[in-house]
Amino acid sequence: MGSQIENMGKIMMRPLTKLHAAPALVLLACVFGLGQTHAQGREHNHDRFDGRFVLDERHHNDHYYPAPGGYAPVLPRGAIGINYRNDQFFFHGGVWFRPYGGRYRVVVPPIGIVVSVLPPTYVTLRIGGMPYYYANGVYYTAALAGPGYVVVAQPIEPPGVIAPAVPAPAPAVQPPARPDPIIYPRKGQSAEQLEADRQECNRWATNQPAAMADASVFNRAVEACMDGRGYTMR
C-alpha cells in the first residue's frame, strides 16, 4: 500500500504535458468567459429601461425623457438621493425616481421637494415677472429657505392680449331744477305768516317716506301741506 501511495504522489507532481494541459486551459477559458459575460450583463442592465421615452417639446425643451411609470433596474451613476416627507426620491438628469419592488420607478416629483442642481437641459422662463426653470414637465424656482431649487406647480401664464377697458358710463342727465313756486295766500295771511308756514311744511315734508331720496315726493308733500294751511302753489 505504501508503494502505491508513493507512485500516486509522483504522478501528481509530474509536470503537465500538452495533452494534460489542454483540458485545464479550456476550463480556465470557460470561467473567464463567464466572468466577462456576467460583467457585460451587469453593464447592459445598468442602461436598460423598462418603459417608453417621450419627447418634451414644451417651451422648446426638445429632449427625450423616460415617461413616468417606467422602471429602471438600477439607478444611473451620480443620482442624487432626497428624503421628502418620509419618502425617498432620486434625481438624475431631470428624471425623478422612487424605489419600487427592488427597482426604481420613474415618477412625477411632489410639489415642494428641493434638489441641489437643475437638470442639464433646463429652459429659463419668466412668467408674470418671476423667473422659472423648466425641464421634463417640471417647473423649478430658486429655493427661498436655502440653496437649491424647489419644484413648484405650473405657473399661470398671463394672457397675451389685454382686454379693452370697459368705458365708464356717461353721467346721467340731471333734469333742470324746478323754479321756486308762486305761493298765494287764500286767507290773506301776512308775509311773516307765509314764511313760518312754509318752513313748517318743509320740515314736515322731510319726514315723509322717500322724500329725501326723490325730490318730486318732497315737492308734492310741501304743496299738500301748504294747501292745507290755506295757500295755493303754482
What does this structure look like?
Among the domains are: 53-152, no CATH class; 183-233. It contains four helices and 14 strands. The chain has helices at residues 2-13, 18-47, 191-206, 215-228; strands spanning 53-56, 63-66, 71-72, 80-84, 87-92, 95-100, 103-107, 114-115, 123-127, 130-135, 138-142, 149-152, 183-185, 231-233. A five-stranded antiparallel sheet has the order 3-7-6-5-4, with no helix packed on it. α3 (191-206) packs across α4. The protein is rod-shaped. Residues 1-5 and 7-46 have low confidence and may be disordered.
What does this entry show, briefly?
This protein is α+β, with helices and mostly antiparallel strands and about 230 residues long. It has four helices and 14 strands.
Distance linking N and C termini? 161 Å
Beta strand %: 25-35%
Mean pLDDT: 77
State the major sheet.
Answer: 5 strands, antiparallel
Tell me the number of strands: 14
Question: What is the alpha-carbon Rg in Å?
Answer: 49 Å
**Roughly how much helix do the residues carry, as a percent range?**
25-40%
How does the overall form come out from the CA principal axes? rod-shaped
Output the number of helix runs.
4
Q: How are the SSEs placed, and which strands pair?
A:
Blueprint: H1 2-13, H2 18-47, E1 53-56, E2 63-66, E3 71-72, E4 80-84, E5 87-92, E6 95-100, E7 103-107, E8 114-115, E9 123-127, E10 130-135, E11 138-142, E12 149-152, E13 183-185, H3 191-206, H4 215-228, E14 231-233
Antiparallel strand pairs: 1-2, 3-7, 4-5, 5-6, 6-7, 8-12, 9-10, 10-11, 11-12, 13-14
Helix pairs in contact: 3-4
